Amino acid sequence: YMVLPSLVIAGLALVPRREWIKVGLAAADAGVVVCLPWLVRNWLACGNPVFPYLTEWFGTAHWTSEQVARWHDGHIVDLAFGDRIARLFSVEYGLRHPQWSVFAALVAVASIAAVWCRDQRRLALVMLGSIAAQVTAWMFIGHLQSRFLITLVVPGAVLIGLGFGMATIPQWKRFCEVLGVIAVLTLSEASVRRFLAERDGGPNIGLVGGVESLNGSLFTEMTMEEMQDLGPDAALNVMRGAFRDGALTAAPTGAELPWKVYLLGDATPLYLASNAKSAVGEIVYHTTWDRELLGDAVRAFPDDPHQWVDALAARGITHVLINVSELGRLRASGWYDPDVTPEVALRLGERLEPVAVWPERGQGLFRLTEHEPESR
């Protein structure tokens, strides 16, 4: 919805009128071919090629109508026109977000120069029309997140190039050269600075050690205390590799492989190393919009945490990786399973055996254990 308006405007302006139908049909065919693998996969998985859209035509698949409504509510922003304009230029959601640095200001200045120059005016107006179409689509079709504005880079970069093209005019040559150098240095410095801040100052660690260096599966010979420093995903890989290899000296008693680990709050199974999958057995997780296993247990047994544990055990769950912080964020957004709250997760954790806990991150890895029935 951001790219298509730009393509239509550019096509109408730059393609000869006699070729509009031919080019339009070719573009539509190419678009269908590109999207086809995902459409087919969705169709096979849930009977709806565009799931979770058009559920009234193709069905809701494994979702309930309540989940569909919750998903749609999460992708609709009810704001007045003035508030939408304000969000477009806000720091959190719009063009003043740090990811843009001075890009928006450069586009504005370059646009004036490009439109003023007669030789470049037509193409500059096409690019400005593209930006206007994208901004309009962003404000009224999507849910007003800054990441969707990234498509503005394409017409914006063209406008900057047209603006610096003023250097071909002798009296503007020196000014454009100086401004161009300043622009390149400023944008480069902002990009490098933000990149170097990734992963606590180690942005390229994944290029050095691969995924295993990120999720901890390289580090199997560790004590429980050392494992605490790695984080939950890394620790899970350390522990399962250690149980497999017999290298973990502080392994909790009764832990047997294969594990079946339930991610509660997290939905990042790909962070867990695939080379030890046979040792773990299975990772169970749910997306933001899905019904949670724990939510089903809470609805069946509203105030009996021991029954929650039994319900998970009946599904073969051996360990639970709880992310209370993420549950709190999802709960505040109103998008998550309404019966799975941070408080519910904490009550569940109290009935489980802690394996490794990271209080500063609000996360912990727990093992299901046998328990005595409570006296009535």
Describe this structure in words.
- The protein is an alpha/beta fold.
- 53% of the residues lie in helices and 6% in strands.
- Helix 6 packs across helix 8, helix 15 packs across helix 16 and helix 17 packs antiparallel against helix 18.
- The longest helix is centred in the first third of the chain and has 27 residues.
- The protein starts with a helix and ends in a 9-residue tail after the last strand.
- About 6% of the residues have low confidence.
Layout: helices, strands, pairs:
Elements: H1 3-14, H2 20-46, H3 55-58, H4 65-74, H5 81-88, H6 103-116, H7 121-140, H8 153-164, H9 173-196, H10 205-209, H11 211-215, H12 224-227, H13 232-245, E1 260-264, H14 277-280, E2 282-284, H15 293-300, H16 305-314, E3 319-323, H17 324-333, H18 342-350, E4 353-358, E5 363-367
Helix pairs in contact: 1-7, 6-7, 6-8, 7-8, 15-16, 17-18
Rg, rounded, reads 27 Å
Largest sheet: 5 strands, mixed
Oligomeric category:
single chain
Widest beta sheet: strand line-up? 2-1-3-5-4
Principal-axis shape: globular
Helix segment count? 18
Into which percentage range does the β-strand content fall?
Answer: 5-15%
Total strand count, please?
5
* Helix share, percent: 40-55%
Helix and strand sequence: HHHHHHHHHHHHHEHEHHEHHEE
Mean pLDDT: 82
Structure class: alpha/beta
Distance between the termini: 58 Å
Q: Low-confidence parts lasting 5 or more residues at pLDDT below 50?
A: 242-255, 274-280
Short description:
With 376 residues, the protein is of the alpha/beta class.
